[in-house]
Amino acid sequence: MTIATSIASHRDALRATRIAAHELRGGLSGDPEALIVGMTDQWSPKQMSECLAYVKNELGNPELIGMMDPVLFVNGHLPTTQGVALMGWEKEPIDTGVVQPSLNARSKPKKAGKIIANEYGKFAKEFKDSSLVLFAGGTVLDDDWVDQMKIFDSAFARRAGWMFRRITKLVEASMAKKGKNIVGYVEDIIDQLAKHELRNVIGGASFQRQLDSAYEFTQDGVKKNSCNGLMLGSDEYRFQTSWGFGSHLYSSIDVTSVRASSYVSEMNGKKASQAYKEELGLTDEDIETHFGTQAFANTYHLLALEDDEGTMYPFVSLAPPPLDGVLLAIPSSKMRERMTLHICKQSGQDILDSVKPTIERCTQGIDKVAGAMIFECCNRVYNIGDKITEENDLIADALGGKDTPYIGFGTGGEFSIKPLVHVANSSIHALAFGK
Amino acid sequence: MSVQNQQMDPISHITEQLQNICALPGVEAALVYRQDAAVISSLTSNSNSRNLAETLLWLKSTVLTAARDIMRSNLRKSIHEVFDKGVLLYPLGVFGLLAVIAEPEANLGLLMIEVRRKAAQIVEGVLYNDYCN
Questions:
Q1: Is A23 in contact with B2 (Cβ distance < 8 A)?
Q2: CA-based Rg of chain B, rounded to a whole angstrom?
Q3: Residue B4: closest CA among chain A residues belongs to which residue?
Q4: Do B117 and A294 touch (CB under 8 A)?
Q5: Is this prediction's ipTM beyond 0.90?
């Protein structure tokens, strides 16, 4: 089996695609049977469609899946934030299939989850081992989303709690139909897969820095609000996933009142934003300066849920200065009116320290790794900047060398099947396969 | 040498990379200096930025010292905040220096990834001897 990867950077999407496709072809003996396509987030759907058409035409119309994200990386090259990354493979022993529910997965996540679970369940039965890699639509919000959220601090929201929650759910449903909202809906999709006891599932969400669109790719072209899966099955190869995040425990904070969905109105018995800033030692100016360019997502302090075994599940929090509350990226099904969250600090070194153990866990029991896929939160990449090249080296070492092909996405949400929650933020999720 | 760097004279190659850098979100200007602070090529993006001229002036007065520091101490990069703008300086091997001026709102973490890549591509595509003497 031959697997090849390529990456190219250029301001012109089509030119970057041409270079990447040319280099990928050089690494393969024939046309690839399946292809993963990653594009960075600055191009229009029309430009991306042209690129996909070029790739399909040039590489023999393989099964195709992928998404756009701010950062892409492959083995043996510097990562890019302005380019195209490809991973293609040919011949046995891995069989592939693509599942693409034709509905708005954001507004009908359970239905999408059932379709994917059924398709993947049937596929998995035909092989000794298998894996499912999901590419889902990421967070999309209006430009004035912070102003829109001010209603959560209104007297009506305070006094008419249950009615406000009902209205909020209707508003969220309407947003989802229009292709907006955060990536928490994926939890419902993965729940369906977990219910069917399907394993080795990982994936990531598409993401655009401006938060105004997010696109996924399939054989049919550029998609929006979709969740598509690449199914991998083999009788010879093993598949294994793992996840991890880097941080050190700092303190804890109590959620004492939740107004709606993931909007926390009180923490430590005080106004949530006040308690949050006190506990983390932040000012409004700090938040504006450090997190204002990334939708106020606090990438340095993660708020983590802990399960009975002491495993932490990290989530990003957002405390835009105009709001009295704090937004948590915890899936709404896991939110409780009262709960304790651990505050973890995530430094650049913590991020680098978490890479090797995570990758090594997913290669355990695999003698020779044939390939890997990595989904890493773009928040981690914001923090480590160009040290991502060191991270790339650590990944290559853990996979057995720079020649082991892998493709990585700096995602806006990453997930795999885990005991307590399936979606976590600021984490790295990996899939390795081999003999 | 990768496919992208083939068949291009060094100046065109540098300009091409500077055009790529200026197309990145948040970049206001990009310049390539020789070690003796002579400008080889420069490009600004279309932003109507305040203080760009002052930042360029600061860069002109600083770049020689910065280049010496970077070369002498073998630094991988140097980051400055000038008039609210981020200024990234990356060494181009023994040949010179790449300077990128970014808007205050630019995400420097992401910018650094691509600028490092472009710096490597400039080095790869340029014959040192053409400019070192």
A1: yes
A2: 14
A3: A19
A4: no
A5: no
